[in-house]
Specification:
By secondary structure, this protein is mainly alpha-helical. It has seven helices and no strands. The radius of gyration is 17 Å and the shape is globular.
Length: 185
């Protein structure tokens, strides 16, 4: 259900499947996901959440339901990023086999090197041409709210970038984009 991004399944079913998979990934021990194929498919699921929260293309026939799907996806993605980026502070079992899937090397690589950088770029891009809620910013905000160390890192980095933008020009579009995103966080 979550792997098929076409209109085969209803958005309500995709929302339920996404939430269920989130629960499974956060609560099941990593040893439950030993298959390379399963790990690859789970990483593709995380990447698909990124596509959902960063897209501007909303199907005109199901807008309200799609917004609900984007909202759920932003919450799920943000929570997963916050948990994965919190791995060095994890107070649970430290062995990779006993911890969550999000702490295994494949998920860490996917989130730290692909999904999280792409989410930051999207969230700190200006609002020109974007309508309605910014689900990319909601996902980033959720990640920050579940990981204070991550929040501090993001805010400090973008405050420094904001200072550099302000030194160049007060009216630069990147200055406004950074202000918008930081105010959301």
């Amino acid at each position: 259900v979550v792997e098929n991004e076409g209109p085969i399944y209803s958005l309500s079913l995709r929302i339920a499947a996404t939430t269920s998979l989130e629960f499974l990934l956060l609560t099941s021990a990593n040893k439950q996901f030993q298959s390379e194929e399963v790990r690859s498919r789970l990483c593709k699921f995380i990447q698909s959440l990124l596509r959902v929260v960063t897209t501007d293309e909303i199907p005109p026939e199901n807008q309200e339901e799609y917004f609900s799907f984007q909202f759920t996806s932003s919450r799920v993605l943000g929570g997963m990023i916050g948990r994965a980026m919190n791995s060095d502070e994890d107070d649970g079992p430290t062995s990779e086999t006993n911890s969550s899937f999000l702490l295994c090397s494949e998920a860490q690589d996917c989130i730290r090197n692909e999904v999280f950088p792409a989410l930051k770029v999207s969230a700190f891009t200006g609002s020109e041409g974007k309508k309605g809620d910014r689900y990319d910013r909601r996902a980033l905000c959720t990640a920050c709210s579940s990981n204070s160390k991550l929040a501090g890192t993001i805010v400090v980095a973008h405050l420094q970038a904001l200072l550099e933008s302000l030194a160049k020009s007060l009216t630069d579009s990147s200055t406004f984009a950074r202000l918008e995103a930081l105010s959301y966080i």
